[in-house]
């Protein structure tokens, strides 16, 4: 299996706990104003990286091939967004979660890539013919991998392409423009998330390559990619979060914390930052501050059930079963049709001595299982629970 298995649509980093020198700063309150921290790292070299406009560059031959297809008389009856969709469907078959992060040129040259590469290519083609594109984050079943002290979690993005030049007829009311969703690998368990801005979409390219470098402990390359992302959007929570990860890895814990505090002042709903900040506070035994940040996490609204599932599993591993139970329930509140949350409830109820609730949750997990293998596993665990009584 390729070592690039987790170079997917974007990276979310969670640091493993380690011993740090306590910091005496107070937790941010609503009345405090946090200045933007100096995230730069003078000790690391800055490499030249792909410019934002070059991410979407197509060669003359690539441009000509698409435009010939798009304007061919045989395709004229189809809407423009449908022609774009058909073109991609005809030439691309090797795009998946596990591929490389490519520019548009690279994606067409290799006829492969990950979902972000596909979205980048779609954008480039759409720009050639003035088709509107929007981007939606998709909350997919997590793919975890731990490299040294960094854990990665995949995130998926898909594109919405809209019919161009749509003319509204007299007395016609249009509430939603005609569109197609380009997502070549929808899967059971995917949950539609927020629409993201173009700037945040471009930032994902650099975040992805930074994540690839970070797991190899190539901090200079990771830093160079994130610096480029900061030029695109210097308030993107995931870019800042990954910068904090680098600072913490380099021992700059005070700067990492300053970044966390700044992000939370401007984006209190960043579950990833809150989770990393909690890990930092736990490692320093700062219990009173930890309690306040934990309360902030509890009040966050996040449409990704797998984030809550991940937090619950980490608490379960630490034998904090009451906290794990709470976050498994949060996962179910967001997506009551996913089996993972109910399985989490079942194993937690079993640990705290509530067998009836454990069996009921396991039954729901089996009922909602996406594959025969998952259902078989849950049914086997259910039989074990029933035989214990």
Oligomeric state as shown: single chain
Low-confidence stretches: 1-31
How confident overall, as mean pLDDT? Answer: 81
3D shape: globular
In DSSP terms (H or I, runs of 4 or more residues), the helix count works out at 16
Structural class: alpha+beta
Cα end-to-end separation: 43 Å
Beta fraction of the residues? Answer: 5-15%
* Computed Rg: 23 Å
Largest sheet, strands/sense/barrel: 4 strands, antiparallel
Number of strands: 9
**Strand sequence of the main sheet, in spatial order?**
8-7-4-9
Order of helices and strands: EHHHEHEHEEEEEEHHHHHHHHHHH
Topology:
Blueprint (H helix, E strand, L loop, with lengths): L10 E5 L36 H4 L4 H11 L9 H12 L2 E2 L8 H7 L1 E2 L1 H14 L4 E7 L4 E4 L2 E5 L1 E7 L16 E4 L8 E6 L1 H18 L3 H14 L4 H13 L3 H14 L4 H13 L3 H13 L5 H13 L3 H14 L4 H13 L3 H14 L3 H16 L2
Parallel strand pairs: 2-3
Antiparallel strand pairs: 1-6, 4-7, 4-9, 5-6, 7-8
Helix pairs in contact: 4-5, 6-7, 6-8, 7-8, 8-9, 9-10, 10-11, 12-13, 12-14, 13-14, 14-15, 15-16
Annotation keywords:
389 residues; alpha+beta; four-stranded antiparallel β-sheet; three-stranded antiparallel β-sheet; 16 helices; 9 strands; disordered N terminus
Describe the structure.
By secondary structure, the chain is of the alpha+beta class. Helices cover 52% and strands 11% of the residues. The chain contains 16 helices and 9 strands. A 4-stranded antiparallel sheet has the order 8-7-4-9. The protein has a 3-stranded antiparallel sheet with strand order 1-6-5. A two-stranded parallel sheet has the order 2-3. A hairpin with a 2-residue loop joins strand 5 and strand 6. Helix 9 runs antiparallel to helix 10, helix 10 packs antiparallel against helix 11 and helix 14 runs antiparallel to helix 15. The longest helix is centred in the middle third of the chain and has 18 residues. The chain is globular. The two termini are 43 Å apart.
